[in-house]
Design goal:
three-stranded antiparallel beta sheet; 10 strands; single chain; alpha/beta
Length: 824
């Protein structure tokens, strides 16, 4: 190998006439997605002017090749082939504008030359991919010999990085050399010489390592040889073949057609469909899992498209990106970075500055040695977020066509870069966007993910995180079995899931999704399944798990103008059954069971408050909570949580809450049980921000803080280590500001209004009155109404201020930005 390398490198640059061993065919071995290979392919085709061009790819795509010349076709794109009966079984053949295969296809179309794909048909490759027995008997695979050609050649040349070696000998040919001169002085020589050198290198590697590739490569190469023979018979000598360099020796080998057909005998088949789909630079990147991926598609795209001075242009783009991120980068920075990159290339013995040198220069000159801006550069420029486009005339499944129509109508353009989308559901367009995204999620097409954002607790605002991935085309094809439109497909799938669901929570979650997606035709089926499951399920935990989704659905029904009367009846029935069965279900639970039931308690409490006309249910629920607070057989974490929920709702007086805490923390209570009660009581309640709700309660009620402090200081030393984990879990989740305030209050000691050693309470805390001054509190109500625009500021009681958004104007209290401005 050491003796071969000088000949290989010479073949990559010196002037030397050369045809492949096949003689009559021009074999152009390339690296997939290599800009240097792409330029060399174009130069070789311009010089040879072949009568036909054969490209590595699935022959089923031949009918789609004319679309490559369509003005609306913009790489990166990919050929997508999938099994008709199993759309999830699919394969992609990506192409970027700097891919040699794409350049060859465009050259042929521009010059009116026939162009064909000659790789193994997708009908065979998809069937073989599902059958691992194909290729297992291959001798090289059995010996475990697999070879990375670039890695071997780079190591032989003394490089520790195959990418850097390939850049030096191939990718930096052309525009990069235009300013500095070719590294080998042979840029104006034979355009085929570079392919002759690569063919010699690959021939030597295959002689040394045998087949050494994928076990099915022998079958692919046999098929390509047959296609090459057929093309030569049709078009004559000089046919050009653009394929991976590893396959060149196999295509040039002297074999018989009979032997090749024998290799192809008995191949499995599956019916397939194929089309063009948009692709992204991110999916071309090696880290994305694509087998023929590259590390820096954005950089390679720049090398291919830059007419001259690519290093200067590249560093100028980086400077522009950093300026957009409010970093101070001037023209002087760019000039110094260019100089430093050239100096580093000279010191490292490289012909010109590559990506490594430019990034080292950027780190030193523009980023002050910081890696943080470099991460942004790698994401936005080196990898890039380019998303291709495919013309509407490309074949597609009916569901994909309907989705494309909806995306265009709703102005929701698929983008490779992740972005946030805020929707106001009172606007018809935003409401339709919401329905589309929810329907797609139900179909398994995860284009958008709901996120918790501003106003997320209201009913009129939704926040989504959108990012289109090429694989979603496969998901759309899979979902096509449910219907030809998004609405019909989502309805059919929802009905099927409702019938097949076995758990009550599954059906309630499905009902919520149907309301969000506005699937009125599916709701009757879902409601029947819901009623059946609810009637048969007697497990309180299952009922408690199912109720929150139903309650949320009722709230969504208001803004989406959906009839939820039947749903309200089922939800009320579930709530009443929970009220009956919850107290006995909370008895005798272990620590894990108690923690789970506490979560159900929170969910049911929030849900009951959302039920329409739920006064009776609310009263029943409050009685259940009060009963739980006084049962010694109920775990402390549940009793504490029940007390807290009653206190938050104003159904438990502060003095009564202090009495319950005093009983729970009395000396007769085991420290572990007392700590569990504290965890349930002062943990974050429903609607609290994180777990800070309990912390704020202790900050503003020093009587309760004093009780906790007095109990904690009295815990025996031998029991303290047992309660410490519970206390750390409770108080450690508070926000830093809350913890700091609690620490200051404890250090200051009991204030007036906190319990004293004798258990008496002083009249009030310093600076505060002894209790709530309702007259002073009522004085701010007119100002609040004026700001919200919900009533006459002079009126004493113009409506429910807390719910002014919902009652007065269809808002939810968080969606009143315009009215606040008008009020001012």
């Amino acid at each position: 190998m050491e003796g071969l390398l000088p000949r290989v490198q010479g073949g990559l640059g010196v002037t030397r006439a050369g045809r492949t061993p096949a003689g009559e065919a021009l074999l152009l071995g390339v690296r997939h997605h290599g800009p240097g290979s792409a330029r060399a392919v174009k130069a070789a085709l311009d010089a040879a002017k072949p009568p036909a061009v054969l490209v590595e790819g699935p022959p089923e795509g031949d009918a789609l090749l004319p679309l490559a010349a369509d003005e609306h076709m913009r790489p990166p794109v990919a050929l997508l082939a999938h099994a008709v009966d199993d759309p999830g079984r699919a394969a992609f053949w990506p192409l970027a504008d700097f891919s040699p295969e794409w350049v060859a296809v465009r050259w042929a179309l521009d010059h009116g030359v026939p162009v064909r794909f000659i790789d193994l048909p997708a009908t065979h490759s998809l069937a073989m991919a599902a059958d691992p027995t194909w290729g297992d008997g291959d001798e090289e695979e059995a010996d475990g010999v697999r070879v990375d050609p670039l890695a071997v050649l780079a190591e032989t040349a003394g490089y520790d990085d195959p990418e850097r070696w390939w850049e030096d000998v191939v990718e930096h040919r052309g525009p990069v050399s235009a300013r500095h001169g070719p590294p080998d002085g042979g840029r104006d020589g034979d355009p085929v010489a570079v392919f002759t050198g690569l063919a010699e290198a690959m021939t030597a590697l295959r002689e040394a390592y045998g087949h050494g590739g994928h076990p099915r490569d022998l079958i692919r190469e046999a098929y390509m040889r047959l296609q090459l023979r057929a093309a030569r018979k049709t078009y004559g000598d000089g046919v050009a073949v653009v394929c991976g360099a590893w396959h060149v020796p196999a295509l040039a080998a002297r074999t018989t057609a009979t032997a090749d057909r024998a290799l192809l005998k008995g191949l499995p088949k599956v019916k397939t469909e194929i089309t063009w789909v948009p692709w992204t630079h991110r999916r071309l990147a090696r880290h994305s899992g694509y087998g023929a991926g590259i590390d820096s598609p954005g950089w390679y795209g720049h090398l291919f498209s830059a007419p001259d001075r690519p290093v200067e242009r590249w560093l100028t783009r980086i400077a522009g990106l950093l300026r957009e991120e409010d970093r101070i980068v001037s023209s002087a920075h760019v000039i110094e970075a260019v100089r430093l990159a050239g100096t580093l290339a000279a010191l490292r013995g490289r012909p010109v500055a590559g990506l490594t040198e430019t990034m080292d220069a950027v780190r030193a000159v523009m980023c002050d040695g910081s890696e943080v801006p470099l991460d942004l550069i790698r994401d936005r420029l080196i990898v890039g977020d380019a998303l291709g486009e495919v013309p509407d005339t490309a074949p597609a499944v009916p569901l994909q066509r309907d989705l494309t129509r909806l995306q265009r109508t709703l102005r929701l353009r698929p983008e490779a870069l992740e972005r946030e989308l805020d929707l106001d559901l009172r606007k018809e367009t935003d409401a339709e966007r919401s329905r589309l995204l929810h329907r797609l999620r139900l179909l398994g097409v995860a284009w958008g993910e709901p996120v918790t954002g501003r106003g997320s607790t209201g009913t009129f605002r939704e926040s989504w995180r959108l990012r289109w991935q090429p694989e979603l085309h496969v998901r759309v094809a899979e979902a096509g079995v449910w219907g030809t439109t998004v609405l019909a497909a989502a309805t059919a799938k929802a009905e099927t899931e409702a019938v097949s669901a076995t758990a009550l929570a599954e059906v309630t979650a499905l009902a919520e999704r149907c309301l969000l997606a506005a699937l009125p035709d599916a709701l009757p089926v879902v409601m029947r399944a819901l009623a059946d499951r609810a009637a048969l399920d007697a497990d309180v935990r299952h009922l408690a798990q199912a109720l929150p989704a139903l309650a949320r659905s009722l709230r969504y029904g208001d803004v989406r103008s959906t009839d939820t009367a039947a749903l309200a009846g089922v939800a009320t029935g579930l709530a009443l059954r929970i009220c009956v069965g919850l107290p006995p279900a909370c008895t005798g639970l272990d620590a894990d069971g108690a923690a789970g039931m506490r979560g159900h308690l929170d969910g049911v409490h929030t849900a009951i408050r959302l039920l329409p006309d739920g006064d009776e249910v609310t009263a029943r629920w409050s009685a259940v909570l009060r009963a739980l607070t006084g049962r010694d057989s109920v775990p402390g974490v549940i009793r504490g949580r029940a007390a807290r929920l009653l206190l938050d709702d104003g159904r438990l007086a502060e003095d009564e809450a202090a009495r319950l805490m005093g009983l729970a923390l009395s000396p007769g209570t085991p420290p572990g049980e007392a700590a569990a009660w504290i965890e349930g009581f002062v943990g974050g309640g429903p609607g609290a921000s994180g777990s800070s709700g309990g912390g704020m309660l202790l900050v503003h009620d020093e009587r309760l803080l004093g009780l906790v402090d007095a109990w904690l200081t009295g815990v025996p030393a031998d029991a303290f280590t047992d309660v410490l984990p519970l206390l750390r879990r409770t108080f450690g989740t508070y926000e830093p500001g809350v913890r700091r305030t609690l620490g200051e209050l404890v250090r200051r000691g009991p204030a007036a209004g906190a319990p004293t050693g004798g258990g008496t309470v002083q009249p009030g805390a310093p600076g505060f009155g002894p209790g709530l001054d309702e007259a002073r509190a009522d004085a701010v109500v007119p100002l609040v109404r004026l700001l919200l625009g919900t009533g006459d500021p002079e009126a004493g009681d113009g409506g429910d201020g807390a719910n002014g958004g919902d009652a007065g104007n269809g808002g939810d209290g968080v969606e009143n930005d315009e009215r606040v401005g008008a009020g001012r």
